[in-house]
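Hey,
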Amino acid sequence: MTSRTTVLGKAIRHALIVGTATIALPAFAQDGAPTTLDRIEITGSRIRQVDVENANPVLAISRTDIERQGFSSVSDILQNVTAMGSPAISRANVLSAGENAGGTYIDMRNLGAQRTLVLVNGKRLGISTSGYQDVSTLPVSAVERIEVLKDGASAIYGSDAMAGVVNIITRHDANGVTANVYHGQYSQGDGARDRFDVVAGWSNDRASITISAEHSEEKAVWAKDRGFSAFGNTDRHPTEAWTTVSQYGQITGLKGPGCAAAGCGYSLNRGSDPLNPANYHITNASAPDGDVSNTNQQMHLNYPLKRDSVFVDGRVNITDSIHFSTQLGYNKRDSSRQIAGYPLQSSTAGIGAMSVNSYFNPFGSQHGYATPTAVAWNHRTWEVPRVSDSSLKTYRAVAAFGGSFDIGERYFDWEVGYQYNKNELRQHATGNLHKQRVKDAVGPSYYNAATGKVECGTAAAPIANCMVWNPLIAAGVVDPYGLTGNQALIDYLMPAENSTGKTVGKNFFASIAGSIVTLPAGDLGFAFGLENRKETGEFIPDALAQTGATTNLAAGPTGGGYKVKEAYLELNVPVLADLPGAKELSFNAATRFSDYDTFGNTLNSKFGFKWRPIDQLLIRGTWAEGFRAPTINDLYGGGSETFTTGYADPCDTVYGPSKDSAAVRARCARDIANADTYRQLKQGLVPITSSTDQTPVPFTNGSNPNLQPETSKSKTLGVVWSPQFIQNFNVSLDWWKIRIDNTIIADSPNQILIDCYEQGIDARCLQFTRDPALGIVNKLTYGNRNAGFLETEGYDMDLTHRLATDSMGTFSTNWSTTYVSSNVFRSTNDGKVVPTPINGIATNSVSGFRVRSNLTLGWDLGDFGISWTARYYSGVKEQCLDVGKHADECSDPGVRAPWYPGSRNYNERGSVTFHDVQFRYNLPWDATVSVGANNVFEKYGPNMYSKPNSVFSYYGGYDIGRFVYMKYQQRF
């Protein structure tokens, strides 16, 4: 079939097949005449076309681009796209718990990873019960190119395609063998990354098979080895954010010697007898030499990962018009994350005080203290940090028959197939304490002269199968009743916990596409398809976690599934062609009907247009409906406990709006007796010293079986220009706007308290209770709910230029920029509540960058090549750490705005640009060696005490040092 195609289409097709540069589709070339080409499918449309330009803004990352970057994983490659945000669950957030911890996820437009759909060869990547798609399960060696659709596409692909779609196209039709070796590490000598992969392929005119095998390993980076993460408030304030729930042990709330308050904390003098009450002093809360801990010293900044992957692509032409294709994938991902030893507080962990009859209670009945008493106590188990090992096995299989046929001059493509995904998860956790055993270990005990040991119970009533523990012994002190070097006691108090998870996805699919009739401007194309998909999943925490028997975050089992039957129809209607002012005008329409057995059915449609008034100019636009179905965990999750980081109580009279808002203070007074002097408490039950901190007690997160799907509307309007007077130059500018309604809110304790006290929504106040004596929130349950909306708007600009010379080689430029002009949300359906903007404002969950921009310059001369990339992040503002103590870090105090009461203190955080460089050379024996450095100038971003997408005072997506690497590729 001979069809008219523009030079634009020809250029893009060549780029996709050969892979010469990262391009934004469409992009124009300059020469052109009708040519005979095969029909191909571009992400965002199911209709195969000769012309690859369509109404959707698509970014293509070629194999060459991948090899010219210093990144060693699919997630790192995608995270470098300017339209990407930083997901809440990542390697930078080591406190993430549950089934998704250890994976890497993609978040477009900062709308949430669950609203970005990831495809592999146009078919869905497997999901967890929470709807997360782990891109670390894909070997980078198997990737041919990546297409990023920066537009909603539920009408084409179904649920979750609200912010955009990432389609990872794997390699096929390879001939020969290619082997790669990669090694890199940070200039500090840590975080080493190694990758070994082999791609082997064979093909002829009837069949092909391509096999990709990869082993990759990423070593740990410790928080203590970077200034921004070595301390709670960075090395700029190294004595702040320490905790008295420390490795030294502490007696709390005791009216003892020298105590002028109602109760004081006491710690053991270093190296002294823990049984003598005279050897205790009032706890010294000063850092670094007091009785305090810096928990960052035991935490991963980036935890280690190991991946082993095999991917097979096979294709057979059964006849000239019928073929069979299959993709088989296996991946095993192992990760291990470490956080500080558990901050055990007897008063909040359900353990209770050390018995007055405990042999280890220096103020008890056995060591001569005048007024024997039981004592509350704290001890951070510094001797045994908490470690969570996660192992995920992923299986993927797709098998399909397809082909083409013609009726007259009409071509039709068809496909029928089956897809199977399975994820199997194993988690192994150590370092949490068995509450009852701890309670017994600090209960009544006595010295048994016959055995020469302290034993549980009393001489008259000993307790069998019990081991005693003295939590007042500091870490590092070798003592038969302490934890240091005492493996038997560790095993008794800290049993290992094992959790399992499994998800299975099955999908039958069938489709047909082709042309219906020939209109004056071209063929009227269509695509029609059916899908029958079933998702099931479960996550079963260890029995100890389910019962809350340990200090691990309690969690119930999750299990369930759903079925969906879908049908879609897409039309491409050419209207005008080769006319003055209308070299091309066409419209695209698609609709998809989805019938879920959980909430019912939904219909989502999409419309687009492309208009080329002259050969060098294209104007395009889309309008699309979208939806996101509730996940298995949303509907059937068992609930879990978590210590919330970045927690801020509005009733705090130093940092909260209660400080200067009479309305907030009045609402707080309904729940807190001392509202005029109330202070938020952190771990150790001491007042916070910054605007946010971790909760001293865990809160509970649960599911909601009555959730309805989210709905969205997205719009795009763009222009693409390729002037004739500049060869190989293309520039595009696209406006986009996405609004998501009926949002399934991953509710948060902070938002609940804001709604209650700042927004005055009384129904939200019913979700928590406060301790009558301390005033702190001591019980809070939050879960997903349908409420409010998200709306974001901005612009994407992409520019490419390639200049080939006769004697100086080839120069290339790729410049990609995303500007977010607006990003607001409201977590309630109450229209009187003013939406909250998060654009340009960093919080614990949002980075807030208005601008992200990447510029890559390349030069190739013969066998030599060099690339230079600059990655820019705009400045943001965040709430000040402490305007009183650190006025120099509070540029805008007393800011008032309609979306919060009173005033807030903000600090401007500057922009940052990271620079990457790579040198490469093609060797005579068909090999290529590349040497490079990401963040070559070892630039660091600004300190950010709001801890966006991180548990440290630094944005989780910033570079953490200079990363130097070498790659060697050998082709056979």
